[in-house]
Amino acid sequence: MIGSRIEKELKDRRRLPRPPDIKTFLDEYIVGQERAKKVLSVAVYNHYKRVFTPEDDKFPRMHKGNVLLIGPTGTGKTLLAETLARIVGVPLSISDATTLTQAGYVGEDVENVVLRLFQASDGKIELCERGIIYLDEIDKIGRKSESPSLTRDVSGEGVQQALLKMIEGMVVNVPPHGGRKHPHEKMIPINTSQILFICGGAFEGIDSIVSGRLEDKTIGFGSGAVARKKLAHRILPEDLLKFGMIPEFVGRLPIIARLENLHEEDLVRILREPKNALTKQYERLFSLEGITLRFKKDALYAIASEAIALGTGARGLRSILEEILLDLMYELPMDSTEKEYELDGKDVERILSPHLEGEKREEAV
């Protein structure tokens, strides 16, 4: 059912949401990251405008604008890709780049990232060929130095090489049931030239590379320190090369969007503002048992503070809430005289404290 709906929408270019519409939709689910959302909105719109526009010899060929998302863990890279696929109405597959190896080595073939998209498309090739592939942890396949390796690096530079043509656009033959290819197995040809690739990674340490570049160059306006601060968010291809990505790979990801660290206030907003906010989900879960659950403001700040202390960003909020609400949810299905629960900051600290003290004792040992 959903496949046929998407197919109809893909055939009608007029249904493609414009950049402001895409960003408005992203705003409903993702807090902050204003520039990244704007960059992605334009990139996705231009990509599918290119997909829907027939080739014309009178005009130059439009090249694909794949996207690189750079930001710390828990800042929303995967959520952005998932939400974009939902608003455009195309299938999405998510793969971890660290599990990939070159063909012939133990691990997962790079073609499997396309296979996952094919499976997410319910086996419909045309639908698959207009989907989105998100490759996470892409920074982990950077080589360890700028100098080309003399030996084959099957988990780093070798994987970058294996992904090049696929990201640019080629026909990939994937096994229908996944796993390794077999000589006598009938392959499924998938053309990746209209698939949008979004790659994400933390790229820890790249800030020092950017700072070094800015220190080395004379900036012709204002104070050097002020100018560096203004430009520090700009990551250039040369910075990625120094990090360990190969030039050909960087060239196939021309659009770079940087996600900023989330602060306590951002995490509080994430807990309560988006349409699918975690607090709303738990409130709904409790309401199914006829119980009203409320989170006081200081409770949200205590949860956000804990996530920052753990260094998990927004990704850790769910596990913290699970820990806080575990005992309540354990008793939830039972008959209870309590019809309302209100959590405040002291409740959060009281519930988490024994758990945290245990963790500290383990670290000391």
Task: Report on this structure.
This protein has 365 residues and is of the alpha/beta class. The longest helix is centred in the last third of the chain and has 20 residues, at 345-364. It is globular, with a radius of gyration of 23 Å. Helix 2 packs across helix 4, helix 8 (206-216) packs across helix 10 (237-243) and helix 12 (264-272) crosses helix 14 (297-310). Residues 226-232 and 358-365 have low confidence and may be disordered. The protein has 16 helices and 11 strands. The strands form 4 sheets. It has a 5-stranded parallel sheet with strand order 2-5-8-1-9. It has a two-stranded parallel ribbon with strand order 3-4. Strands 6-7 form a two-stranded antiparallel ribbon.
